[in-house]
């Protein structure tokens, strides 16, 4: 008497519903037999202890295999074509037929594969299986396992390999590595592995497709575009300029895109930065759209003159090239932090050694946590050894250690090996250090938020840092003055190069306007503040008049911009657009009307301030009020999109400048640009500033 086991039922493709999920992966690899062979197996066999005859094997697998007994209780299946053997049964355990099907269907059998190539035929299992219905039985419910038919697409595979290399910074030469080639061949023998030159072309093709879509976005931008320049050095003495663009589109959403990676053979020359800007404007056809340039490092006088000369030519109507930000905020904060830590290096090392003593031993860390619980220290901070290439980790280490100072002070009572406990005076100095580092940390954190914060956000942070450091540098406490002197000197350089742009940006915030500039400058400059406020006031009025004088197609005062499309004015008299004198008449009316009534800018500045709410979408406010301020709203969007940082969010806290690796330096400059830009476009969707409903209703 032979009893058919549940394993045999499973191998005949009847799978309990509860178990199908765990077998899904295997079933996706297992091409099924034609439907006719499954119809007989839909009804599960109820196991009963009664005599049965051995069923005839009906699977088409046995047309290609024979079963031979190799030992007592052990049988193996032999391929009729290549004579390779496979496990079939040992005792009462049956291996099933899935691995036998794969041998034939996947082309593993060399004889079958050669026959297929010669006859251009498919395997017995290449037909797509059909889904079978559920069958209910008195005991359990079963269904037949089946998978959708997936056709092989060589072009799609090449496309995905190119995307994989771009997205993960893999070397192009990986397609010629023996290990990768063997992996792909085992995965899909029909795929012809591509060469280095082929995959390089595929990556460039991916870049060009993505570039075309970015080009359409840029062409539809109603306003101007702000650029950032970030220079990467290399071991080969050439530099790579990363040129990014930031702008607000016709739907009033913020975008930030990497546009070019320009190789500069002489990065130290006075023309390197201006050459990269000119190359970007030419490549993207952005002449007439440039608004401002933000650079990752201070320029010498010759480089500054070259850049301003370029701006005055490419953008003559915007303050004659004055909108040049000579310092990246992220790099400035990093430099200030480094100077502060260096000035108290012994103190920072003492704290770091104490943290390392605890964190490098599980037993010591357990003692530390136990002592913390005994002392009932309320801090929720966790100790961590800092990464000296990321300055935020050093700040967080110092702050956590200070909050846990009571535990450190008592640690030697539980652990006699702990030496070098910081004194009470040391902990006071750590507290002072953290207090002056906190504004830097908070400001840098703003640069890492999702989307791109508008420029006005950073005026609040910058003027408070400038004021606090100026006061601290003149402190009578020698520790405070020594600590903050170099910090104040470095931040003062950033403030002088950037305060004008930050100030005109905060004027475009209806909660503050020029009032906050007057207030903050009075704190910083004292009796001389009026002259500095006048510079900002005159500058923003001059910029507004330049927007008034812009050509008609670029000025929303003449056309209503809705979703990036200009509404055509009605022409009831049938007068054509080329009628003589009407364009000049529009300009005349604007000039004479502005003399008799207040301008949009003056009207905006004289209106009362909006109440300060915690979450305020300044771009959304200008969108709502664009009909009331048609020209000023466009100028506000351009100003609010000026970037203060040249590096991506992931690099804001870096203390080491990025450097182009030697492998990419060995590639053609065009290939390097394609790989890096395409990764930026594929990895990040359009960076949009969140457009929340404006919470304050303002009459229009």
TrEMBL record:
GO cellular component, one term: nucleus
The keyword Transferase is assigned to this record: no
Principal subcellular localisation of the protein: nucleus
An example Gene Ontology molecular-function term: zinc ion binding
Disordered: annotated span: 118-137
UniProt name for this protein: BED-type domain-containing protein
Domain BED-type: 56-116
Superkingdom, natural source: Eukaryota
Pfam families xref list: Dimer_Tnp_hAT, hAT-like_RNase-H
